[in-house]
Design a protein that fits this description.
121 residues; Alpha-Beta Plaits; 2 domains; three-stranded antiparallel beta sheet; 3 strands; 61% helix; DUF6164; transmembrane helix; Transmembrane protein; transmembrane; membrane
Length: 121
């Protein structure tokens, strides 16, 4: 029975391409579903034979570990050389965006807490 390996929602194209290459290299029989026209389904990469899932899952876990380490190293390098985005740099470059976002967060928190505050009286 088919088993979903990777839901493609919010997956960058380079990551999906790397996963396809990894599966091809490991000679894994898989297929891909495309996103729906209305965005209900994002598509995915499916394993045809569910019995291979533990082996393929181990491959994907190792790949994700390497990709995470690479991303963390790239972020650390960006922060070290001053090109990485931080809260302070975002506040300097887009102050209106930051203020509106913070006000929105406060408004949502107030709406969530309001019933509890009214019930405690």
């Amino acid at each position: 029975m088919a088993k979903l390996l990777l839901n493609l929602r919010n997956v960058p194209d380079d990551e999906a391409d790397e996963v396809r290459a990894l599966l091809d290299e490991a000679k894994v029989d898989y297929y891909e579903t495309r996103p729906s026209l209305w965005g209900i389904s994002a598509g995915g990469i499916w394993l045809r034979d569910g019995a291979e899932h533990p082996r393929v899952k181990a491959l994907l876990d190792a790949y994700q570990q390497r990709r995470g380490e690479t991303a963390r190293a790239r972020r650390a390098a960006e922060l070290a050389d001053g090109s990485g985005e931080t809260f302070g740099s975002l506040l300097r470059t887009r102050p209106l965006f930051v203020i509106v976002t913070l006000l929105g967060m406060v408004a949502v928190a107030a709406l969530v807490l309001l019933p509890f505050l009214l019930l405690s009286r």
